[in-house]
Write a structure and sequence with these properties.
alpha+beta, 3-stranded antiparallel sheet, 3 strands
Length: about 110
């Protein structure tokens, strides 16, 4: 798969900086967890988990490289998927958050103007 030239691949360092958790799940239908519960095993890698992995494998490690290292803790399969588990922010929520941040940091707001 070809990546457009102006895109960069996400790295562990990017994930740590942003702080969004990463959802990981097993795709193997042979997984005992899937067979027992009727759905795939899911785990969440928090920012703290990702910081540990970035320290171990390097902040420049891409998610493609990192995902190849992941294994299901129930069946050992490497057939896993990952997804950023961030909560979407509506435009109204963003304005409210920016207003709150502006109240806490009035100098930063005046510099933007």
């Amino acid at each position: 798969m070809k990546t457009p030239r102006n895109w960069t691949r996400a790295t562990l360092g990017d994930a740590v900086r942003v702080g969004d958790p990463i959802m990981v799940w097993c795709n193997s239908r042979a997984c005992g967890y899937w067979q027992e519960h009727g759905n795939p095993y899911r785990a969440v890698l928090t920012a703290i988990d990702l910081a540990d992995y970035a320290e171990r494998y390097g902040v420049g490690t891409t998610f493609i490289e990192f995902r190849a290292r992941l294994r299901c803790s129930h069946c050992g399969s490497g057939d896993v998927s990952t997804m950023v588990d961030s909560r979407a922010e509506t435009p109204g929520e963003r304005r409210e958050r920016e207003a709150r941040e502006g109240e806490r940091h009035p100098k930063a707001r005046s510099r933007r103007a």
